[in-house]
Amino acid sequence: MMAITSIDIDQDELKTAKQLTGAKSNRETVDLALRTLIAVRRQPAAVERIISRSFEPEQIDAPTITPAGTRRAERL
User: Fold this and answer.
1) Which residues contact 9 (CB under 8 A, 6 or more apart)?
2) Where are the alpha helices (DSSP H) in 1-76?
3) pTM of the predicted model, to two decimals?
4) 10-48 residue pLDDT tens
């Protein structure tokens, strides 16, 4: 759902954010900033979910599968 709203934004910060992101418009810059903030704030909970997972022994020793169309990284 979209809402039309009017807010005061520091023009220098908006210009810098727009340049750093390569966004084409102020709207795109603000949308990206909001999505990024939400993702960053959700990261700790996502990490905790990953850490708390438990695996069966057969999952831990499962072979690595390389998706079709990709190359495996060469080992040094």
Assistant:
1) 26, 30
2) 11-21, 26-51, 57-60
3) 0.59
4) 999 999 999 999 999 999 999 999 999 999 999 988 888
